[in-house]
Design brief:
This protein is of the alpha/beta class. It has 9 helices and 7 strands, in the order E-H-E-H-H-H-E-E-H-E-H-E-H-H-E-H. It has a 5-stranded parallel β-sheet with strand order 2-5-1-6-7, with helices on both faces. A two-stranded antiparallel sheet has the order 3-4. The relative contact order is 0.20.
Length: 209
């Protein structure tokens, strides 16, 4: 358990976040989701609301293009002297925070390109959770009280944003099986069964190291 690091990418409405929380609860380890944004804001000095608005959003986020003046505020410099816009600063804050948290001990990381950030760390299990569209539509309808049409629209919007963010900042493709160790259809075993499968796989992976 002390070496357990699990990253979870997920389609919107596939219960990926819930599954990640169940994995963490069953193992007695932290689950990093929105808490990661708070930590990144605190350590980077960026506004938490700003990071929250940019969280897993493509690089041309609404807040960035509407609120911020690109000439006056959006550029700073990294250690090598290269300019970084605000979106890149936000991603680097997340990147650094994921690395630090993984170095502090075991944990489950939800989204935020964590699988890519921790790609060279031995024993990390990289998981992608998906489910059939009809199942996801029903889940989103029930969770947010939306009509079938609005639920489908929201799913497509969220998936597109997550894919754009992931594909922009990594050399992998969001949702493609080659980008992960295992991909699981959560509708087959349900949240609890899927969590158990992830735990079993992680334990076997750690034993092989």
């Amino acid at each position: 358990m002390s070496d357990t690091l699990i990253t979870i990418g997920r389609q919107f409405g596939s219960c990926g976040r819930i599954i990640g929380e169940k994995v963490a609860e069953k193992l007695g380890i932290p689950c990093y989701d929105k808490q990661l944004v708070k930590r990144a804001a605190k350590e980077s000095g960026l506004w938490e609301d700003l990071l929250d608005q940019m969280d897993e959003k493509p690089s041309n986020s609404f807040l960035y293009s509407i609120v911020m003046d690109p000439y006056a505020y959006s550029y700073s410099f990294d250690k090598q002297g290269y300019s970084m816009n605000l979106n890149q600063k936000a991603f680097m804050a997340t990147y650094t925070t994921v690395e630090k948290l993984a170095g502090e001990g075991p944990g489950v990381f939800i989204g935020r390109c964590a699988d890519y950030i921790l790609r060279d760390v031995p024993g990390v299990l990289k998981v992608f959770i998906y489910a059939p569209m009809e199942i996801r539509i029903r889940t989103v309808m029930e969770r947010f009280g939306l009509s079938e049409k609005h639920a489908k629209d929201q799913i497509q919007k969220e998936d597109k944003a997550r894919a754009s963010y992931y594909n922009y900042y990594t050399s992998n493709k969001w949702g493609k099986m080659e980008s992960y160790d295992i991909s699981i259809n959560s509708s087959i075993l349900g949240p609890d069964g899927t969590a158990d499968l992830i735990i079993e796989t992680s334990e076997k992976l750690i034993k092989r190291i």
